[in-house]
């Protein structure tokens, strides 16, 4: 018998990707998957891509989840904390929501509102010292999707003194799955196709998370909805230290990171190359005119930006190699 796994919020996009990864994981055994409005439905009706998995979605409550060794919470922001508090302390929990990412209650109030539930161990293993903290934790807060792409591009540069932390500008495009599965008029195919549209300009909730993890003190983020199902392309710019080679700094920082790839000189990241993988692709240069540093970062928002990252964290929490059950390589075409 493997490590018993339960997934709350299994009817959403991240929940469906979690089920796919857990079902193919050599050490995990899926014992429960729960939903809210879809409770009582067959899993393969809600997620046709998971045909052959004979499972009925259950009600999302602590009693359904508490029998597992490991629980993934793929719930809307603000709904994880109360449920997690009802689970036994020995049950390992990875929260894909935002409830436990931020250490600063004022940042939580400004960007999310409501009661601040307090921070858990932050779930980005590539940050210095974070693998060890995750491995020793029973409660881990998974990253946000934009946050993962931007932190991986920026954190080593700020830490090395190669990028000025007070002047970071990011424009990042994301596929529509990042907005969740709920039916919304602005996400209809006829609205999205053939269009790029900015949203939450200057107010995106991942900004305090990115600042917390990178040490940036001034950050402007413009998110853009792109006409594709999944993927993120982030363009991160900052003022570099004189004579710095940002690509060399990133290559050294991620030399031993199995899921972060600094591409060869002249190769630029694109979203399709990370589709279905748990990888992040990076490239960096210095603008010949403005002399600003430019870092391009791509990842699958449902992979390294959500479900894949959660499984990577869970692997570490369970004493497994962090790559277990995850793909480094994308799917093409």
Automatic annotation (TrEMBL):
Q: Which pathway, per its entry? A: Amino-acid biosynthesis; L-arginine biosynthesis; N(2)-acetyl-L-ornithine from L-glutamate: step 3/4
Q: Does the keyword Acetylation apply?
A: no
Gene name for this UniProt entry: argC
Identify the domain of life. Answer: Bacteria
Q: Name one GO biological process term.
A: L-arginine biosynthetic process
Residues in domain Semialdehyde dehydrogenase NAD-binding?
A: 4-135
What GO molecular function annotations does the UniProt record carry, in alphabetical order?
N-acetyl-gamma-glutamyl-phosphate reductase activity; NAD binding; NADP+ binding
Enumerate the subcellular locations listed in this protein's record, separating them with semicolons: Cytoplasm
Q: Where are the catalytic residues? A: 145
Q: What Gene3D superfamilies does this protein's entry cite?
A: Dihydrodipicolinate Reductase, domain 2, NAD(P)-binding Rossmann-like Domain
What InterPro entries is this protein classified in? Answer: AGPR, AGPR_dimerisation_dom, AGPR_type-1, NAD(P)-bd_dom_sf, Semialdehyde_DH_NAD-bd
Task: Give the CDD domains listed for this entry.
Answer: AGPR_1_actinobacAGPR_like, AGPR_1_C
Cross-referenced SMART domains = Semialdhyde_dh
Q: What is its EC number?
A: 1.2.1.38
Reaction catalyzed: N-acetyl-L-glutamate 5-semialdehyde + phosphate + NADP(+) = N-acetyl-L-glutamyl 5-phosphate + NADPH + H(+)
Identify the taxonomic lineage of the organism of origin. Bacteria, Bacillati, Actinomycetota, Actinomycetes, Micromonosporales
Q: What is this protein called?
A: N-acetyl-gamma-glutamyl-phosphate reductase
Where is this protein primarily located?
cytoplasm
| Function of the protein | Catalyzes the NADPH-dependent reduction of N-acetyl-5-glutamyl phosphate to yield N-acetyl-L-glutamate 5-semialdehyde.
* Organism encoding this protein: Micromonospora echinofusca
For this UniProt record, the keywords arranged alphabetically read as follows: Amino-acid biosynthesis, Arginine biosynthesis, Cytoplasm, NADP, Oxidoreductase
Give the family this protein belongs to, as stated in its UniProt record: Belongs to the NAGSA dehydrogenase family. Type 1 subfamily.
